[in-house]
Amino acid sequence: MPHFRTYDDAELHYRVLGPAGSPLPPLLCLAGGPGRDAAYLGDLGGMAAHRQLIIPDSRGTGASPPAADPSRYAFPRLAEDLEALRAHLGLERFALLGHSAGATLAQAYAALHPQRPTRLVLVCPGSRLQGELTDDAEQIFAARSHEEWWPQASAAVQRLAEASDLSEVRELLSAAAPLAYGRWDEPQRAHAATEGAQLGPVPRAGFWQGVDEQTRLALLAGLERVTCPVLVVTGDRDAVTGMRAGELAAAAFPDARVRPLHGVGHYPWVDAPELFGPVVEEFLRTA
Questions:
Q1: In a domain, 131, yes or no
Q2: Residues facing residue 30 across a β-bridge
Q3: I need a surface site. Which of 12, 59, 197, 232 has the fewest CB within 10 A?
């Protein structure tokens, strides 16, 4: 597995999917969680068939070792790992995609290095960076109370707030998994089956650690200097981050558009690869 040295000489790993000879520029893809093994991204619903996807294993996830200093799990520091990967790859500028918490990391990178991204794709982002926690995800979840899986998922969500044991957290996440998808069919079940095993509790806990209000506001101000086009993809059945958070994220940029997808949850490339892939590809190819 290829690797690179980052700013503190840590050896971090990344994977490359897709054809080496593609005429299309590569797309760097950031996993969410936070602290989740990037394997859950798969090939983003077949996007690797046409262009290379470069997917880093963040510190303490996948093949990358844990950080000796827990403060290096904070997403502004992870943004500097991404900058080290860019330099290692020899990319002057590049397109960047982030999913969920990875979208927060992508925004931090763009704020700190606004000259680097050529296109920015934020998939089902939260809005904590924007300083507002929306409640429409709860409304989306409540609206699905007629579905067979809902009572068990609802009970699991309530217990998650107080759970501390890792094995219990993983069990509850498994029970709550259907709320993250537009439907609960075999592809969704298979995708959700690995979630607990992919969870990195220490990187997850450190993602926002040390990111004070001054840092948040500075990053938010930095987004105003990001001149590249931004696409925000949301799903109208996303009971994890909802849709309003995507609208708030888009409003932080000078040139951003929101593309809601119907019948889609928190993992659009799983629920509707036939919608997700073309939407992202059209955006990446538009001059």
A1: yes
A2: 98
A3: 197
